[in-house]
Write a structure and sequence with these properties.
Blueprint (H helix, E strand, L loop, with lengths): L5 H22 L8 H9 L6 H10 L2 H20 L6
Helix pairs in contact: 2-4
Length: about 90
């Protein structure tokens, strides 16, 4: 019985890791706690609808994505305001 080549073993391992990541993203976290960084984001977010869905999506973000979003929020709020979109 021959063993699989190293490249095939690597690809299978990467595939399994990717499947696990997709499953985590689809399921979302079980927790509904509101971290401080989400509270800061939500305070700036102009449209106060869909908070539970936003929190669930927040938990799925990587810390790098959270930082990028936090950095972009002032620009987003400015664009939203200049477009005249209401804050309901």
């Amino acid at each position: 019985m021959t063993s699989d080549p190293a490249w095939l073993v690597t690809i299978r391992a990467e595939l399994e890791a990717l499947k696990a990541r997709v499953a985590r993203l689809e399921d979302g976290p079980a927790t509904t706690t509101e971290p401080a960084d989400f509270a800061s984001f939500w305070d700036q977010y102009p449209r106060k609808v869909g908070k539970p869905a936003a929190l669930k999506a927040w938990h799925r973000l990587t810390s790098a994505d959270r930082c990028a979003l936090a950095a972009f929020m002032p620009t987003f709020v400015s664009i939203w305001a200049s477009a005249g979109i209401d804050r309901r």
